[in-house]
Design brief:
This protein is of the alpha/beta class. It has helices at residues 14-31, 48-55, 108-119, 177-180, and strands spanning 7-12, 39-44, 63-70, 83-86, 96-104, 124-132, 145-149, 155-156, 172-175. The chain has a single domain, classed as Rossmann fold (3-Layer(aba) Sandwich), CATH 3.40.50.2020. Helices cover 23% and strands 29% of the residues. The strands form two sheets. Strands 4-3-2-5-6-7 form a six-stranded mixed β-sheet. Strands 1-9-8 form a three-stranded antiparallel β-sheet. The longest helix has 18 residues, at 14-31. The chain starts with 6 loop residues before the first strand and ends with a helix. The structure holds 1-O-pyrophosphono-5-O-phosphono-alpha-D-ribofuranose, hypoxanthine and magnesium ion (MG). Hypoxanthine is lined by residues 72, 103, 105, 154-156, 160-161.
Length: 182
């Protein structure tokens, strides 16, 4: 039994992910020069591997914060109800916030969180996402920094889960449909 047997095909390889993290890290380092302690805000749980690798390529005095946000609750479709399970530990008032995400799909999570942080008085709010699935959008949302675009298929690995599994796969792959149709 191997978790890798449940993967239909690799979509974004480990080498591609490493190149994306380096490229985006350099771009962010250039764009945020001179800003006062920007906050890299990860949305748990999916952000963890990407945020960890990306942050090593950001050569700036950033603070790191997390917010635990969920709307899929183990399913392959969004419940539409974006729940904050744990809020961040610091005030965002007058701060530059860069949200780190694994994927933008329907856009509901980011739409909700970006609006919330603006409402709380953040100076700027931008999003860096490893994956963008524009064909999944229900609410218009355009992330500033995008690793790569994926088709409208359910993907797992590198932080992304199905029913809380597969987050520990080191690449992004398409899950065999028979796994979630069981
Ligand atoms: O654009 P959307 O359709 O809102 O989807 C994107 C969000 O969905 C996933 O989170 P999930 O709710 O599965 O929580 P998790 O990160 O704990 O898996 C993913 O990590 C994003 O946060
Ligand atoms: O394709 C996906 N896979 C895993 N989690 C997700 N959350 C939104 N879209 C996805
Ligand atoms: Mg999930």
């Amino acid at each position: 039994m191997s978790i890798y047997n449940d993967i239909e095909r690799v979509l974004v390889s480990q080498d591609e992910i490493a190149a994306i993290c380096e490229r985006l890290g350099k771009q962010i380092t250039a764009d945020y020069q001179g800003k006062e302690r920007p906050i890299l805000l990860g949305l748990l749980k999916g952000c963890v591997p990407f945020m960890s690798d990306l942050s090593k390529h950001i050569d700036l005095p950033i603070e790191i914060e997390y917010m635990d946000v969920s709307s899929y609750h183990g399913n392959i479709t969004s419940s539409g109800d974006v729940k904050i399970r744990k809020d961040m530990n610091t005030s965002v008032m007058d701060r530059d916030i860069l949200i780190a995400e694994d994927i933008v799909d329907t856009g509901k999570t980011l739409d909700t969180i970006v609006k919330l942080l603006r409402h709380r008085g953040a100076k700027s709010v931008e999003v860096v996402t490893l994956l963008d699935k524009p064909a999944g959008r229900v609410i218009p949302f355009t992330p500033k920094y995008i690793g790569t675009v994926v088709p409208k298929e359910f993907v797992v690995g590198y932080g992304l889960d199905y029913n809380e599994l597969y987050r520990n796969i080191p690449y992004v792959g398409v899950l065999k449909p028979e796994i979630y149709k069981k």
